[in-house]
Write a structure and sequence with these properties.
Blueprint (H helix, E strand, L loop, with lengths): L1 H13 L3 H8 L14 H8 L1 H26 L7 H17 L12 H11 L1 H18 L2 H21 L7 H21 L1 H9 L14
Length: 215
């Protein structure tokens, strides 16, 4: 039951659709433009760098706040499984972002929210994910490829650190956490299935942070 509660807490945080709200303040539904995705990249392409930055941090920190809320509510009651509960809260946030009930379940792909999960999860995974995303994006300009690399880092990093005993969790909770992270990884791949097809075909759209890069 406690897991469901943490999922629901996260889902409620995930319903804060930053790009959708920002777009509505500017008279548009972001999902009717560009890729149709309510996320950072589409906000950047459709409404500019300011919108992209606001969307990224809004979606990232809603996950951080969900995790923080679970720590404050249940940290003392469930100290041996609080890291697992935090992952459930993060998963709920990503699900709320991807499938918001009040927007007919049309949201984003959950990458910025996943960044919030990683930031609140482990600093070592955060550093590796940041470096690899930057390396992939700056060399290829494919946000989707960088995002998938980040999920690979999250999955592998969780397994490696967990098996090294660095999470200090009972084995059953640890393996359960592996399953939740694996589910999120599969979900991310599924949400990026069209991007993957375009990457293979060489038709994926590139993203540049400056107008000079587009020339």
């Amino acid at each position: 039951m406690i897991r469901v509660i943490c999922l629901l807490i996260g889902y409620c945080f995930g319903l804060f659709q930053t790009s959708y709200i920002y777009g509505r303040l500017h008279g548009i539904d972001i999902r009717d433009y560009g890729s149709g995705n309510a996320g950072t990249t589409n906000a950047l392409r459709t409404l500019g760098r300011k919108a992209g930055v606001i969307t990224f941090f809004g979606d990232c920190f809603k996950c951080v706040f969900a995790v923080l809320a679970v720590h404050l509510l249940f940290g003392k009651t469930y100290p041996d499984m609080i890291r697992l509960l935090a992952v459930y809260a993060a998963a709920g946030t990503i699900l709320g972002h991807n499938f918001p009930c009040y927007l007919k379940f049309r949201g984003g792909k959950g990458i910025a929210a996943t960044a919030g999960l990683i930031v609140s999860f482990d600093w070592r995974i955060t550093l590796i994910a940041l470096v690899l995303f930057a390396a992939v994006f700056l060399t290829t300009h494919y946000v989707s490829l960088g995002s998938l690399v980040v999920y690979g880092v999250l999955m592998i990093g969780t397994l490696v650190l967990g098996q090294m005993g660095l999470f200090a969790m009972p084995a059953d909770y640890l393996y359960e956490m592996y399953i939740v992270v694996a589910f999120l990884t599969v979900l991310a791949v599924w949400k990026h299935r069209e991007n993957i097809q375009r990457l293979i075909a060489g038709t994926e759209r590139k993203t540049y942070l400056s107008s000079k890069g587009r020339k």
